Amino acid sequence: MFNCHREIKVMKSQCIRKDSITQENIASDLANAEVAIVSGFKVSSTPGWCPTPAGFIKFNVDEAMKSDGSSGGIGGILRDLHGKKFLQFSLSIGPVSVVLAKLMVVEKGLKLFIVSHWFKKHKLIIETYGKTVVEWVHDPTKTPACFSSLISGMVNRMFDGWLLLRHVPRSFNAEAHLLAEQGIR
Q: What is the dihedral of CA 75, 79, 83, 84, to 10 degrees?
């Protein structure tokens, strides 16, 4: 049986490297601060891309909104364990709430992966700055009713064992965020 929490913990320990500990990800995740202190890592101002475990590919996804909320964009990059780009997207989503935009970008990443030829060959990690979405997927009882159908589809895929969804600092999703900004029209 696939143990999502154990896999995330293993991946996190593999991902923490000297060049990936940044001020931003220490502030967003105190476990990183503990690793940095215990391991004596120097905090870097430029985060590195974290490779996936064998058998996984990773979608980094993000959203961006105009400050007045009149328009938004979503973007993402799918890469293999070596960081090679397989595909990327940048789309306009119009005027939606920030929470809906965060859900939409994760859903778009899932849909693109499912229709790709990589679906039968790899498991997927989706990394997003959308902490609320990740929390809802890991504990669906916290999901507002209006978003429950979107979340339940993600939860089912996680239990099928081929999807991991995790929150990362925005600095780890800089390229995906630029693609999201390009989607704003």
A: -110
Contact 6, 161 (CB under 8 A): no
Helix (H) or strand (E) holding 92: strand 85-92
pTM of the full structure: 0.74
When the candidates are 2.60.40.1120, 3.40.1180.10, 3.30.420.10, 3.40.50.10330, the CATH number that belongs to 52-183 is 3.30.420.10
What is the band of 178 on the pLDDT scale with cuts at 50, 70, 90?
Answer: very high
As a whole number of Å, the end-to-end CA separation of the chain is 44
Write down the mean pLDDT value for the chain: 78
pLDDT of 69 strictly over 90:
no
